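Suppose you are handed a protein chain with no further information: no name, no annotation, nothing but its sequence. What can you learn? This example shows the usual starting point.
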Amino acid sequence: MSEGDFHQPNDKLFRTTFGVPENAAGFLKESLPREISTAIEWSKLKCEPGSFIDSRFRSSQTDLLFSVPFGNAEGWIYLLFEHQSSPDRLIQLRLLRYLVRIWETLTEKRPSTQKLPVVIPVVLCQNAENWNVEPRFSHLLHIPDHLAIPLSPFIPDFHHVVIQLADLPDDAIPGTPSGVFVLRVMKAERRGEFLTDAVWDHSLIVRVPEEVLHLVLTYMLARDIDKEGFFAKLESLPDPEIRNNAMTLAQQLRQEGRQEGRQEGRHEGRIESILDLLQMRFGTLPEGLSEAIRLVHDETALKELHRASVQCSSIEEFSRKL
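A reasonable first move is to predict its three-dimensional structure. Written in structure tokens, the prediction is:
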């Protein structure tokens, strides 16, 4: 997935950090049942391409698929990062759909496959408070008590591993320095605690690569954060090289943010102008047309659409320009 496919800052930070097998392995091997974890060859963990999420949920979910040997068998781990603000009561149904897509992708790539590999689904929740999450698929089904046993052969069932950031103390988050730092930041974002000592733990920050620190600072400045408090935290970092580099980077990001904000304002203004012209000339717009126009991000394309909104003789003619 290209950088342009990320829909939220959460996506880019999560995928960039945990798309690195070392960071993913450091977190996952402590999060799976011990008997399974000890059987996995973590040094051979490999991040596979692709996303299996329904398009309508890409603003609240991000996923990563890993292949790794389970002893003498091929195995996969599917990591779904859930960053919506409330629990999803049908998450098991969605997971089942994603698992089927994973297996279908495998059989398309390897038509001669005789047996499918096991896929372990892991759901990581970026929640502020603990959710009452049921990890078993059959929990969704209404199964009469007196028929539970005779119906069991006809019921697809599986468990998924649930990891809730709200349930993890900061000092108990497992993994590499990069993985721990990013998850502490994501946990803090939901609680409005970006400026806590757990996030600005210098003993942790000095072990984080510069590119990860860059991503985290970008993430923070894109969220709701006390800017004065943020820069005060940067100034308090004891390591002079890290402090100076972080301050310089943060200032650059702040300036870029202002420039992007102005550009975004012009972009939105052009879209509103197109919509106003179309409505003034043709009345109520067809369902979906406004949404299609708002999805255009290329400035040159928007200029052409603006011209078309003035020159086209019908809404149908304009629609063909999209």
